[in-house]
Every structure is written in structure tokens, then in C-alpha cells.
Design brief:
Distance between the termini: 7 Å
Shape: globular
Helix content: under 10%
Order of helices and strands: EEHEEEEEEEEEE
Number of helices: 1
Structural class: mainly beta
């Protein structure tokens, strides 16, 4: 089995703890916190709460796709939903924020679902979040020829490309 990794080395800067109030979209709230506090790249350390509704996608098999998978159609779950856990990275793409955020939630019957959350489609009832600024690494989202999708591209400041591990 091979090991192939693109990575950067940096450190944590500011740590922000916040409670999002009713009606705030989870991703828009995260990006507003970053913008307000001059944070370019961050990681979501902890994120829990509840949603009024949720919109997300997940991977499904697709034999015609370059990597044999694609995203599902958008799933829309009506609330109330318990937001069990969310994690992700705050990135930049074409000068704006593009947060890559996954989460899991349960409905009123305890049925769990989740996936890649859609910006603008996840208004909270309330949410508690801790995020940490990442310094020394630019979190970038950009097109990846190998996968045929936009992917995470961690670029360490001062380097022209990510560090690499390639073991075959």
C-alpha cells in the first residue's frame, strides 16, 4: 500500500469560542467570525448544537466519474435536529472563504445522518463552536486534476507547493 500526502507545517494562533444564535447559518457564521477577526485559515476544534433544518451531500458510487464517486443530490432534513458534531477547515478560494465542513445530526427519532454541509442551508437553533486560527499555512481549496474535484491544498508560507510524502 502506498502513502501519498500533501501537507504544511504551521501553528495555532487565536482561539475563538462562540455561541451562534438562532437563525445563523453554521458555515456563514464561521466565516463571519474569521472575517471579523482577520483570520485567513482555521480549523474547527469543536462544534455542537441544534439545527432548524440541514442541507448536505454525501458520496455515492458513480462508475463514470474519475474516482468512481460523486456527490449525491442535496439532502434537506427538516428540524429540529440535534447537531451531534461538526468539523472542518476554513479555506480560501478565489479570494473568498470556502469552508469545508462535515457534520452529523440526529432527528427527533434518533436517526443519525450527515455529510458535507451546504453553505446557507444549515440555520441553527443554537450552536457552540471553538475555532483555532492556523498560522504559517494557507488553507486553499482548488481544482485537483487527479480527483476531478475541488480539494484541500495546504500551502506553507514561503513554499511554492505543499510538502510531500510519497512512499510506494
Amino acid at each position: 500500500m502506498s502513502v501519498r500526502v500533501n501537507y504544511g507545517i504551521g501553528s495555532f494562533g487565536k482561539v475563538i469560542s462562540a455561541r451562534f444564535l438562532t437563525g445563523t447559518d453554521i458555515i456563514e457564521g464561521i466565516e463571519a467570525l474569521c472575517e471579523e477577526n482577520s483570520i485567513e485559515s482555521a480549523t474547527i476544534v469543536s462544534c455542537i448544537g441544534s439545527f432548524q433544518k440541514s442541507s448536505f451531500v454525501y458520496l455515492v458510487p458513480d462508475a463514470t466519474a474519475q474516482i468512481q464517486v460523486r456527490f449525491s443530490d442535496v439532502i434537506e432534513k427538516e428540524g429540529p435536529l440535534e447537531f451531534i458534531q461538526g468539523s472542518g477547515v476554513v479555506c480560501k478560494r478565489d479570494g473568498g472563504y470556502e469552508t469545508h465542513f462535515h457534520g452529523s445530526m440526529s432527528d427527533q427519532w434518533g436517526v443519525v445522518s450527515g455529510g458535507h454541509l451546504i453553505k446557507g442551508g444549515n440555520p441553527v437553533i443554537t450552536a457552540d463552536i471553538v475555532l483555532a486560527e492556523v498560522q504559517g499555512i494557507q488553507h486553499i481549496r482548488k481544482w485537483d486534476d487527479e480527483t476531478g474535484h475541488v480539494q484541500f491544498y495546504p500551502l506553507e508560507n514561503g513554499l511554492g507547493q505543499p510538502r510531500k510524502i510519497e512512499k510506494y
